[in-house]
Amino acid sequence: MFNVARGGSAPPLLMSSASDLDALMGTLVSAGGVVLGFIVLVAIVRRFLFICGPNEILVFSGRSHKLPDGSTSNYEIVQGGRGFRMPFLEVVRRMDMRLFPVEVMVQNAYSAGGIPLTVRAIANVKLSGDPIAVRNAIERFLDYPPSQIAVAAQQTLEGVLREVVSQLTPEEVNEDRLKFAESLMENARDDFHQLGLDLDVLKVQHVSDDQEYLANLGRPLIAGMLRDAENAENAANQAVAEAEAAARERAQTATKQAQTRVVEATNTAQAEMAELNARCVEAENQAEMAAETARAKAEQHLQALRAELEKLRLHNDVVLPAEARRKAEELKARGEASPAIENGKAAAEALRLVSEKWAAAGEAGRDVYVLQQLPALAQAAADRVAKSEIGQIKLVAGDDAAYSAVLSSYPAAVASVLRETGEALGLDLERLLAPVDHGKGNGKKPLRRRSHEPSPPTQRMSRGPSRSTDKPVERKGGQL
Length: 480
Prior knowledge:
The protein is an alpha+beta fold. Among the domains are: 51-93, no CATH class; 99-211, Tetrahydropterin Synthase, Chain A; 367-390 and 401-432 and 452-463, no CATH class. The protein is 62% helix and 14% strand. The protein has 9 helices and 8 strands. The protein has helices at 12-48, 131-141, 146-165, 170-175, 177-195, 213-361, 363-386, 400-425, 429-433; strands at 49-51, 56-66, 72-79, 82-84, 91-96, 100-110, 116-127, 197-208. The strands form 3 sheets. It has a 3-stranded antiparallel beta sheet with strand order 3-2-5, with no helix packed on it. The protein has a 3-stranded antiparallel beta sheet with strand order 6-7-8. The chain has a two-stranded antiparallel ribbon with strand order 1-4. A hairpin with a 5-residue loop joins strand 2 (56-66) and strand 3. Mean pLDDT is 76; it is low at 1-8 and 438-480.
């Protein structure tokens, strides 16, 4: 707390707190007033607003109200809605419109034949919903409990019941109770409308009389019914006896006819059995023949299958392994030939390079190269001739020229092989081997290479030395 000196002024903070407190109190008072006003309004509405249920009516009395027909009434009826009661000017009262049962019992009610009857009935009654009839009910039964309204309805129904019974005979009252009840409702409709009530249901429960008139009315009927019943029983017994006799006769006739049919059916069955047995024997024979035929066909098919199986077995055991070996050898040969193919490619590349160099050197370079390879060509030709064998030579005695010709055939053969080799390679070996004439010459022109011969000759060389495929012939007289 702050101590304020006498004659001094309060601090600013204290003054601000006091003003906030005053504002808060004002707000609280306003809110309380609003809440209190709302509560009072709700209480007023609950006090003066009336809601009518579907099974009741509200009667607002105390003020004049104008009706739809132009007349004036000092009360207003609200049915199935709501209404607001003017304070101090109107009073609101409720009336129940639910059903209430009314038991009606009339004793010694004389019928049209002068027979006193006792009638007991039950009715369901309620306030009417008609705008005119309901005003009659309000004017007569407002603030009445349902028990007092039931008493008024009961007295009215008793009078109507006596009136209707006096117009009907005891037979009509007892036999046609639905018509009796309809007559009661029709005669009571006007009286109930004046009271503002509706009669929903009316059921007659019991009709009797002390003189047992109604009981005696049924005796002739009962006697006639008993007589008719006895006659009907006798007629039924006679009909039963006649029916039994006719049934026995029909049964005997049917038995005889059945026996006859049985005999006929037995004979027919025996004949059919004999025919069936014959058919069975025939069918068995045909089945046996068919079985033999099928067995033979099956055996033939089995033999064919066995032959096919043997063929397949031979194919699997012989052909397939041979094919596999062939393919294996082919693959092996391909594998072995792969290096030779590569060597050939390398040799071809080398020859291509040599050919290029040879073409660059010209014809003189080719001649020099051929002269360098001449010993190898001569040796190859000599080896080729040496491998040739002469089987037999027959010489005539004293013919030395023939023997000399045979001996000189070796050099000629070598020269021939060498010449053919040169022609095969496109070379003119005779020109290269001819002596050079430094003088005038012998008048012969040097041999020239044919224009159609390819150049260089190395392009026509084989990849390896040729081998003779000729089989050697053994000579009986000697070998050259």
